[in-house]
Amino acid sequence: KAGVTQTPRYLIKTRGQQVTLSCSPISGHRSVSWYQQTPGQGLQFLFEYFSETQRNKGNFPGRFSGRQFSNSRSEMNVSTLELGDSALYLCASSLSPDPLIQYFGAGTRLSVL
Amino acid sequence: SQKIEQNSEALNIQEGKTATLTCNYTNYSPAYLQWYRQDPGRGPVFLLLIRENEKEKRKERLKVTFDTTLKQSLFHITASQPADSATYLCALAKGNTPLVFGKGTRLSVIA
User: Fold this and answer.
1) Do B98 and A101 touch (CB under 8 A)?
2) Could you report the per-residue pLDDT of B45-70, keeping only the tens digit for each?
């Protein structure tokens, strides 16, 4: 069974631009979560989608948004990029919401210049 | 707000010894606790889950304990090998709430 696939793996953007990251979950997994990982803050939860509905949201500004499609694939979008948005963005899928065992992709490394 | 501390940023041990990593939490009553392994340039990989009513869980050379009174979990790797070198993350959750991760402990096993 294929794992979680994230594209692209690396991205370089400049301040003020917007970016869209893509995630394909493991087949059969309907829950998709997004995390931001930085050396200073660690792994921080952005949002979770289940059956196309946002079920949980972390403490991030409205510039961060996401969506999930009917095939469970998910995208996250960051508008008006800031230097502090440079991070590893990880997507994870889960078969069940409880317990929420996360299967992570390799991540998208975003650098904002 | 809830706080999770993995009390060592880095831990160095000799090959063959037992590595013990600690995860402490405050202001939280998790239903379960998980441990993940993360290698450089990769996403975390799930290792073990232990529920609040379980004291200990084992998987091969891994052992996790969970003390809800002390609000602490210990993660042990016995007979450690250089291939065990990685960052280990603990994560807590209850019900349908999101996982809350610690910042991780970077383990180096020296041959």
Assistant:
1) no
2) 999 999 999 999 999 999 999 999 99
